[in-house]
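User: My collaborator sent over this chain with a note saying "see what the structure looks like." That's all I know about it. Can you take a look?
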Amino acid sequence: MLPAIVKTLTVVDFSDRVSLSILWWIGGLLYLVQLAIAVPGYLYVRHLGHTGVNEYVFVGCLSVLLPGIAASVYWCAFTSCFGGSLLHAAYMSLYGCAMGAIFWLIARPDRHGPKA
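Assistant: Without extra context I'll predict from the sequence alone. Here is the result:
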């Protein structure tokens, strides 16, 4: 959502409001789709007892990669942009890896509270 916030703060021309609203809708919908993938993935990984950083990085990667692949198939399946779009989705999945690692650092399931 950070790109949408930055764009909102820098808009000077009133005619940019349509593209800005599209940016907010796409960003919001993508965020919801990522949550729909990441939360069940997190619960499943936790249920299996895997608490390492690798599992969280993998779930974070999938939470960005799967919507990117779905968007590529939907918008570019019958045009010449399919390969580039899939490559872009793979590149964006690196950000998902970073999100998974940061979530692992925050949640740290291997760390327990103080013993009473």
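A starting point for your reply to your collaborator: The helical segments are 2-10, 17-48, 53-76, 82-107.
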